[in-house]
Amino acid sequence: MMVAGAAIGAGRAQADGALQTMRAPEGLRATEEPGAPKSPQTPPGRQTAGQDAKNGQAATSHGQHYVTVKFNYNFWRTPACSAKVKTACVQEFVAYDISGGAKNRLKLFEIPLPANTKGVVLGITGKSPQKLDFESGKHLISVVAREPDGSESKAEACTIWIVIP
């Protein structure tokens, strides 16, 4: 079982047993909101500030952000890979943006196993090695466990919504 928290920028994620709202800098927040992000609708012929004049859609802004995830994992169910255990084991964790659905996921970064891989391990943390480009709006961040054969746990099992201003 994995439980995730995520943060962008200097914020810190926390998750203990369930997804929680996190404190984050400059109006950025992560929540448990279900469903996909929705675009605001503007009546035809009206254009608000920040919209693209050609199609009337809201102009999308981008920003460079570090992503930090913090989650718990139960190594009793699927142990860490070792010299003795080489199959059906966790080789590493991977963080994805699955805002467009699990089949259209975008890999953000890999997370090495912690030093202690016995039983339930709380507070495993991974941070993107470089800033990543994010569009403003909602993003669904996921952490999966990857096995040596490349198979991964379900992307929907360990997620949290974040909002980029």
Molecular structure report:
The protein has 165 residues and is mostly beta strands. The chain has one domain (2-34, 60-164). The chain has no helices and ten strands. The protein has strands spanning 2-8, 29-31, 62-65, 67-74, 92-97, 106-111, 120-127, 132-135, 137-146, 159-164. The strands form three sheets. Strands 2-10-9-5-6 form a five-stranded antiparallel sheet, with no helix packed on it. It has a three-stranded antiparallel sheet with strand order 1-4-7, with no helix packed on it. The protein has a two-stranded antiparallel ribbon with strand order 3-8. The relative contact order is 0.26.
Show the helix and strand layout:
Blueprint: E1 2-8, E2 29-31, E3 62-65, E4 67-74, E5 92-97, E6 106-111, E7 120-127, E8 132-135, E9 137-146, E10 159-164
Antiparallel strand pairs: 1-4, 2-10, 3-8, 4-7, 5-6, 5-9, 9-10
Multimeric organization: single chain
Going across the major beta sheet, what is the strand order? 2-10-9-5-6
* Helix percentage: under 10%
Q: Gyration radius, to the nearest Å?
A: 18 Å
Strand % is: 35-45%
Count of domain modules? 1
Give the integer mean of the pLDDT values. 73
Say how many strands there are.
10
Q: Distance between the terminal alpha carbons, to the nearest Å? A: 31 Å
Describe the sheet with the most strands: 5 strands, antiparallel
| Helix/strand order | EEEEEEEEEE
Uncertain runs are 6-54
User: Structural class given helices, strands, pairing?
Assistant: mainly beta
Supply the number of helical segments.
0
State the shape. Answer: elongated
